[in-house]
Each structure stands twice: as C-alpha cells, then as structure tokens.
C-alpha cells in the first residue's frame, strides 16, 4: 500500500520529489508534475539551488563516489530535515552547501550567485557548540558581527535581540564552561543566526544532549525558525526528531549517496507550531514513522 493510501488519501507529499533516476519513488506523490519541478529547480534567481551535485573522495589511487546527482532547491522558511543511514553522505552534502567541500560535479547557487566557498550567506551549527572558551556568551554571539565590521551600537542591539530570543539574557556574562549543554547549543545557534545567513545548516545539533534538554531544544528551534523565517537544513539520525521538526523531509541512501524521498511533512503542514504531544498522538505519525524507518533501512 502506498503511503498516501496509508494516510487515508491525504495529499501529503507535495514538496517535489527528486528521487532515484529522477522518478518519484513508491509511496511518494508529487503535487507538482515533473516539468514544473524542473522549471522550479532551474530558476536560480531565489533560494539555494543544488544542481547535479556529485562528490568523489580520493583515497590513494582509488576514487570513492560519496554523492551522485543531488538536485534540490532550498527556499526561505523551510525546515528541511535530512535522514539516512550512516555513510549515505549527509555530512558531505552539508559540507558542500557550507562551502567547506567543492563538489566534483554540479553547482550550487544562492540567490543566483555561484557558491563555491564558505561565506556569510551560510551559517553552520555543529554537534558541539564550539564556543570560544575565553569569551562570555554575549561576546561569543557578537564575534561574527565584529568580524563583519558592524558598528558597536548595532552589535549591542543585535546581541541583545538574540540573547532574548534564546532565553539567555540573564546568562549574557557567563563563560561557556559555566553553561549547560542546552545553553551552549542555544548560544551556538544565536551566534549563527546573528550574522543573518540565508541558510542555517545544523549537523545533528542535539545528539549530544540528554533526552529532556533535547526535547526543549527541539521546541526552541521550531519557535526560532518560525520567528526568523530562515531556511534551515537539519541533519539527524532520529526519526522522531525529524517528524516533529521538519516542514520538509528528505531521505538519502548510500552507495553512492542520493536522495530517494523529498516531501512536505504532512504532520506540520498548515500548523508549524502544532504541539509535539498532539503530533505524536496522531495516527499519521505512526504511519509516517513506519514509512520513514522502512525507507531508511530498506536500501
Ligand atoms: N574525507 C573522506 N575521505 C574519504 N571518504 C570519506 C571522507 N569523508 C566521508 N567519506 C565517505 O563518504 C561517505 C559519506 O560519508 P558522510 O560522512 O558524508 O556520511 P553521513 O551520512 O554523514 O554518515 P554519518 O551519519 O555516519 O555521519 C562514506 O562512505 C564515508 O566513508
């Protein structure tokens, strides 16, 4: 039975599917037809467009193909969650979007400009917060703004704004070692958002946190996302985290890394602030969870 039927005919998969061999995969029904998908994808004027991205790593004389023909468009206001088994190329793809790695094939554009190296259009949040240990929390958030040459008064204003957004105002003067894991990660997200990137890449940002802090951080991230309207590209191994947060779900398979599912998350469509408890209690959650688990495992 295809996923659409499992969910009672609801129109669920409408973000455009760029699956294996360009086909929609079993269970994926795109609301757009193939031609409008490809037109949207080749409109490079807005958003982040990845076209034909391939990557091979060289190990001595051997080339290992890590990514093959990745095509996707990332738009403002999307929270794209990428799932897939270990080694399917999630981090490689993130590193390419960050500009840390040059793809072997294909290209990325951001609002029509070729993107080939790290720049302020792209912010990255890692698993570990990597704050400067000698700087206070506020100074850590301010750091990137100083580097950009922003005048002091504006820096102060912006830091205060993001401290408030993250619920960190009362901890502004503390050093990283005085903060909990969740506070450090909130500071890292604030530091990234403060520089106003077009896209924020998050590589398993909550995987080092305990379960309760992790759930708090998920709720926090969702609020920040809807408040800032940023495009976020979020990697996780956690299917539940993906289902609660994503506006769009992407599944990758290895050998070589490629996208096999790419669809709007029906659990959050129309209500991005739907309570987690309500999402978890819905029948669609169970069905979609099973579907994702089978798609991640079935390669
Ligand atoms: N620097 C490198 N040199 C050679 N091969 C690499 C390198 N980095 C990654 N690879 C290979 O590329 C493939 C994709 O790796 P990548 O880390 O992007 O996958 P991933 O999906 O992020 O994995 P995980 O979920 O375990 O973090 C893997 O087969 C990996 O072994």
TrEMBL record:
Q: Name one Pfam family in it.
A: ABC_tran
UniProt keyword terms in alphabetical order: ATP-binding, Nucleotide-binding, Transport
> A GO molecular-function term, please?
ATP hydrolysis activity
According to the lineage, what is the superkingdom? Bacteria
Q: Where is this region: Disordered?
A: 18-40
Question: InterPro entries given for it?
Answer: AAA+_ATPase (IPR003593), ABC_transporter-like_ATP-bd (IPR003439), ABC_transporter-like_CS (IPR017871), ABC_transporter_ATP-bind (IPR050166), P-loop_NTPase (IPR027417)
The family database entries (SUPFAM superfamilies) matched by this protein are listed as: P-loop containing nucleoside triphosphate hydrolases
Q: Please list the residue ranges annotated as the ABC transporter domain.
A: 50-279
What protein name applies here? ABC transporter ATP-binding protein
